[in-house]
Every structure is written in C-alpha cells, then in structure tokens.
Amino acid sequence: MKTYNLRGKRVWIAGHSGMVGGALVHRLQREECETITVDHHRLDLRCQEATAAWLKIHRPDAIVVAAARVGGIHANSNWPADFLFDNIAIASNIIRVGCEIGVEKLLFLGSSCIYPRDAAQPIAESALLTGPLEPTNEWYAIAKIAGIKLCQAFRRQYGCDFISAMPTNLYGPGDNFHPENGHVPAALLRRFHDAKIAGRPEVTVWGTGQPRREFLFVDDMADACVFLLKHYSGDSHVNVGTGIDLTIREFAEMVKRTVNYEGRIVYDPRRPDGMARKLLDSSMLTDMGWKARTSLEEGLARYYEWFLANFPVARH
Ligand code: GDP
Q1: Burial class (CB in 10 A: 0-12, 13-18, 19+), 76
Q2: For ligand 1, is residue 94 a contact (CB within 6 Å)?
Q3: Is 255's C-beta closer than 6 angstroms to any atom of ligand 1?
Q4: Best probe residue, ligand 1, of 134, 138, 140, 183 (max atoms within 8 Å of C-beta)
C-alpha cells in the first residue's frame, strides 16, 4: 500500500473551526506535522482571488477540505442557493489552486447525502450517480458530488494525489446546537437537555421516528481522515461509517437516557423524514484496516459532557 508520511509536513485544515476540522487539528497533534489554520473572518474561501492569494503565500504540503456550509434537513431546504453555491465555490477554489501550487496530498470531505435516495443499503461507493437524490438535501449533495469529481478530474488530468471521504452522519464536540438548523444529534441533545432543565413533560422529535441513520463520533472521523491521508491514494471516494444503524426513535431514546430526561417523546409527522435509510457500506475502508472505535453510547456520553462544559447558558 502506498503511504504518505505526514512527519514534518505542513497540513492546512480548511474549516478548523467546524466540528470535523477541530477534531482533525486535535488528532494531527499526534502526527509530528505542523497544522496551519486561518480564521474565516480573515479568509473567505468562497472568494477565488483571496483563496488563491492565501494559498500561494502559505503553500501547505497537504490540505484537508473540511470547510463547508453545513446544516440539517431544515437548513438545507431553506437556503438552497447558499448550500449549492458556497460549497461549490469552496471546493473548486481550494482544489484548483492546490493543484497549481503542487500540493502533495489533498483530502476532500463530503457526506453520505451524495447518494441516490433509493440506493441499495448499505450504500457502496459505486452507488454514486445511479439515481435521483433525496430532494431535501440535493443542493448540498450536488456541491459535494462536484468536489469528488474535481478530485478525480485533477488526479486524471494533472496526476494530483487528491482523494475524498464521505462520512455518515457525524456528531461530537463542536457540533452546531441550533435547535432548528442543526443535525438530529445536536438538536435532540439540546432539546432533551432544555426540557429537563425547564421541567417540561414532553419533547418533540421531528418526523415519524421511522427513518434509519448511522452515527459516527467525530474523533473517529478525524482518525479515519489521518488514516486515509497516510494510506489511500485512489480515484474513488471512500465511505466512512460504523456499519451500524438504528431508527430515529431508538436514537431519540438513547439521547433521552444520556441526558437523563424523564418526560415523554412525541413525534411531529409534519416535519420531514428525509431519506428512509442511510447506512454506508464502509467495507472499502475497513478492508484497508481502519475501523471506528467509539460506541454510540460512549460517544453520546462524551458529547453531552462537552455540551455541559461549553453551553453554560443552556445549562441554567
Ligand atoms: P439527514 O440525515 O441528512 O436527513 O439530516 P438530519 O440530521 O437533519 O436528520 C436526520 C433525521 O432525523 C430525519 O429523519 C429527521 O426527520 C429526524 N429528526 C428528528 N428530530 C430532528 C430534529 O430536531 N432536527 C433534525 N435536523 N432532524 C430531526
């Protein structure tokens, strides 16, 4: 297996203030490389000139594109222009200039929503572009598909070692706990916590509770990224998951237990369910020798611990 040695390399984490970027900065401390970051108020990655100028000055050896406009099912359908345009701009600006300045390795991060709504489960990498997307997140999905294709195109045309990874639903420290715009783990953790503090008798969970999702703790994702940077150099994007899924109902019960909330759960079927099931086939990655280490129970406990330590306002 071809390997890329990170020792002594300058690695730019684009999007270090996000959940995955933050976990990566932390994880890379164990790799004897130097991490480079830039705050988003100092560099707007959607701006081609500014991104090119910054990259030409800082010239990283390797890049991880963890920067993106992200959000849950609600945010995706409410801001289609931002989700499509911003994410395409970020991917294309970084990838093109990365090639121009001779970046040795680039890892582009996407999401499992790139796959067709009716893809066979568990979803293998080969399911990409075999059918229509789930309409609630197609804006984000199309931008992420463009990112994968840019990596492949630059690899084929210019020989760049650009790869991409598609994580399943992520959760962990640094998540967005906005009650409407976040993903389901953050939204539910916050809602159960707030209800417990306020002594409310019930908590509402969106949709029917029937969809199935697979959840990966963000530190495991960061570990998979480092593994891929070091050991993977192929044309295909690579799925990153745990191989285990559960219903939103089962997940909500687990979050309720984590928070120690004693009230009832009610479902609001007027809210969208999104894809019926989204379980990744991660055998390509596990066959290379990587697997997730954090159980959902342990991950949720660490998630809540982080929330309590970092959301003092929500605690009272
Ligand atoms: P998705 O995996 O791309 O669909 O993204 P989400 O994390 O936003 O939603 C996953 C599933 O959780 C969907 O079936 C939602 O209906 C369900 N869900 C239940 N409660 C919530 C909530 O409070 N917020 C969000 N975002 N989803 C919720």
Answers
A1: buried
A2: no
A3: no
A4: 183
Nearest Cα to 278, choosing from 116, 51, 155?
116
Is 177 in contact with 186 (CB distance < 8 Å)?
Answer: yes
Q: Which residue type is seen at 255?
A: V
* Residue tagged 């911003």 (tokens): 86
- Listing DSSP states for 192-224 in one string gives HHHHHHHT-SEEEEES-S--EE-EEEHHHHHHH
pLDDT on residue 276: 92
pLDDT at 315: 40
Pairing relation of β-strands 264-268 and 202-206? Answer: parallel
pLDDT at 316: 38
What is d(CA 95, CA 160) in angstroms, rounded to the nearest whole number?
Answer: 10
- For the record, the structure tokens of 66 come out as 């963890």
Half-sphere exposure for 3 (CA within 13 Å, toward CB): 6
H or E stretch covering 162 = strand 162-167
Q: Which residues pair with 277 in a beta bridge?
A: 212
Across the chain, which has 316 residues, the per-10-residue mean pLDDT values are 90 97 98 96 97 98 96 84 97 98 98 95 98 92 98 98 98 91 93 96 98 98 98 98 98 98 97 93 98 98 96 53
Give 201: exposed, middle or buried? Use CB within 10 Å, 0-12, 13-18, 19+.
exposed
- The DSSP bridge pattern shows strands 212-213 and 246-247 to be antiparallel
Q: Is 140 labeled as catalytic in the residue annotation?
A: yes
DSSP assignment of 55-107 equals: HHHH--SEEEE-------HHHHHH-HHHHHHHHHHHHHHHHHHHHHTT-SEEE
- With beta carbons less than 8 A apart as the criterion, state whether 165 and 107 touch: yes
Residue 313, pLDDT score: 52
Would residue 259 be called left, alpha or beta, if left means φ above 0 and alpha means ψ between -120 and 50 degrees?
alpha
CA of 143 to the centre of ligand 1 (A): 20
